[in-house]
Design a protein that fits this description.
Mean pLDDT of chain B: 96
Main location (chain A): membrane
Mean pLDDT of chain A: 97
Helix content of chain A: over 70%
Number of strands of chain B: 0
Distance between the termini of chain B: 38 Å
Radius of gyration of chain B: 17 Å
Family (chain A): Belongs to the TsuA/YedE (TC 9.B.102) family.
Protein name (chain A): YeeE/YedE thiosulfate transporter family protein
Number of strands of chain A: 0
Largest sheet of chain A: none
Order of helices and strands of chain B: HHHHHH
Structural class of chain B: mainly alpha
Shape of chain B: globular
Subcellular location (chain A): Cell inner membrane
InterPro entries (chain A): Sulf_transp_TsuA/YedE
Shape of chain A: globular
Oligomer: heterodimer
Helix content of chain B: 55-70%
């Protein structure tokens, strides 16, 4: 467990919770990233705030890099595995109406049985694939 | 004002994704891969986010309306149907293959990585296809 980073995990998680809470408190909306981003692309309705939310998502890491000078992270390899993964994540989050933020944080946070079920399933599938392949 | 708040909400969430290092797919795979050197960090990210959101949600829901909109818009669906079961499983398969879910993948675009961009484009194609072919209930 030498890769365990409890402090940054707790601080980061707090920021995620606060951002999601702000969207609910101010706009009355669930902060589901897959839903908001896909609707920003494919739906005209309420597009402006959804685009603004996505813009915030894109800029966050640049802000972190300004504050933490040695901030860096790895990225996957270009290839069929990454493309297939992206396609599956897109299909799955659209069919399943949510991802780690919408179901995992907002849904479980309001004790939705549907979101709790979805989270258990995508966690189990993720663990299975990551452990075997 | 709604636009400004939505921007800040997205910014806060992606700062959290970056600070917790969930932006790094290797870090996420360290949690999902139980066969190797297991890294429990993601569980604490979820725990902290849930602690803040669940308590905050209770307080917020006590109000009659959100601060800057007419009403709260919560999902109507409550049935655990075929689309959510299959969708969640398909999402999990993709998540475990590379270690990206939608938030971290979008946040990581700032790295300029072509692989990240290719993942996001494939994800957008997936969103499009699922809209075109919704699963029967």
């Amino acid at each position: 467990m030498e890769n365990f980073t409890p402090l940054s995990a707790l601080i980061g998680g707090t920021f995620i919770g606060l951002g999601a809470l702000l969207l609910m408190a101010a706009l009355g909306r669930i902060a589901g990233i897959s839903g908001i981003a896909s609707q920003a692309i494919f739906q005209k309705q309420d597009r402006s705030w959804k685009l603004a939310f996505v813009a915030g998502l894109l800029l966050g890491p640049l802000l972190v890099a300004l504050v933490i000078s040695d901030f860096s992270f790895s990225t996957p390899e270009l290839g069929p595995r990454t493309l297939i993964a992206g396609l599956l994540v897109g299909l799955g989050t659209a069919w399943g109406s949510g991802c780690t933020s919408g179901h995992g944080v907002c849904g479980i946070g309001r004790f939705s049985p549907r979101s709790i079920t979805a989270t258990l399933i995508f966690m189990a599938a993720g663990v299975l694939v990551a452990s075997l392949f | 004002m709604q636009i400004m708040i939505a921007f800040i909400a997205g910014l806060l969430m992606s700062i959290g994704i970056a600070v917790s290092m969930m932006i790094d797919p290797a870090k996420v795979l360290g949690f999902l891969n139980l066969s190797g050197n297991w890294d429990p960090s993601l569980a604490l990210v979820m725990a902290a986010a849930l602690a803040v959101y669940s308590v905050g949600f209770r307080l917020v829901r006590g109000r009659s309306a959100p601060l800057m909109a007419e009403k709260f818009q919560l999902p109507n669906a409550s049935k655990i149907d075929k689309p959510i079961l299959i969708g969640a499983a398909v999402f999990g398969l993709g998540w475990g293959l590379v270690g990206y879910c939608p938030g971290p993948a979008l946040a990581a675009l700032s790295s300029g990585s072509f692989a990240t961009l290719s993942f996001v484009l494939a994800m957008v194609v997936g969103w499009y296809l699922a809209r075109k072919w919704p699963l029967p209930h």
